[in-house]
Amino acid sequence: DDDDDIPQLSSHALAALQEFYLEQQQREGMKTSQGFNQYSLGSIEEDWQLSQFWYSDETASCLAKEAVVAAGKGGRIACVSAPSVYQKLKEQDGKDFSVCILEYDRRFSVYGEEFIFYDYNHPLNLPENLLPHSFDIVIADPPYLSEECLQKTAETIKYLTKGKVLLCTGAIMEEQAMKHLGVKMCKFIPKHSRNLANEFRCYVNYASGLN
Questions:
Q1: In Å, how far from its chain's centre is CA 68?
Q2: What is the pLDDT of residues 19-52, one digit of tens each?
Q3: DSSP letter at 193?
Q4: Are 54 and 190 in contact (CB under 8 A)?
Q5: Rounded CA separation 41/84 (Å)
Q6: pTM for the structure as a whole
Q7: Domain 48-204 has CATH 3.40.50.150
Q8: Sign of the alpha-carbon torsion through 178, 152, 133, 210
Q9: Dist CA 135 CA 62 (whole Å)
């Protein structure tokens, strides 16, 4: 019988696999039945291999509101390696501001023209139509807690912003954040959907609502 050579899963492995597929189908079903919003937090799951750690819903909302206020009516907001803030901004369906996302993870290309592929190793390798100093505020969360990553991301931030910067990074980066961007630590403490070992903080260079 030709079937004799086909490897068979144990009943335990088969049950686990079926359970996995069932959960996956239920998740997909929930997305469909709820008219799933592609911009909602969790619509794209974090990838730890890309050093991605999404903010909690509360933190993402708080940072998005701060960005809108800081940008002002008709303002432009750039999210650099901060996709969960971008998603919260899009949930608001705001007509008084525009936003774009600069991100290494090409899964975010589903957001169309607002997605700009970004590699911090090449901080000024940006599209020609992304004009210098064309954003009222830049919110950034460098993917790694290293001075090299912060310094290169800072080049991008300084190119994009008219002046206002909202940086989220580790508390241990306070001195480097001041050195490269002139930003100071806020009282507001950002939280992530999964607890991180490193303490995270927000830094700004303007009078913000995060203090």
A1: 16
A2: 665 655 555 444 433 434 554 444 445 444 444 4
A3: S
A4: no
A5: 6
A6: 0.76
A7: yes
A8: negative
A9: 20
Q: What is the 3-state secondary structure (H, E, C) of 124-150?
A: CCCCCCCCCCCEEEEEECCCCCCHHHH
What burial letters (b/e) apply to 19-35, b meaning 16+ CB within 10 Å? eeeeeeeeeeeeeeeee
User: How is 33-56 classified by DSSP, letter by letter?
Assistant: HTT--TTSTTSS---GGGT--PBP
- The stretches of the chain forming alpha helices (DSSP H) are 11-33, 57-71, 83-91, 147-160, 174-181
Is residue 100 classed as helix, strand or coil in its secondary structure? Answer: strand
Residue 145 has pLDDT above 70, yes or no: yes
Is residue 127 within 8 A of residue 120, CB to CB? The reply is no
The tens digit of pLDDT for each residue in 105-142 reads: 888 888 899 999 999 999 999 999 999 999 999 999 99
Handedness of CA 126, 129, 134, 135 (dihedral sign): negative
β-sheet with 75-80: strand ranges across = 115-117, 97-103, 75-80, 135-140, 161-170, 200-204, 184-185
**Residue 170 one-letter amino acid:** G
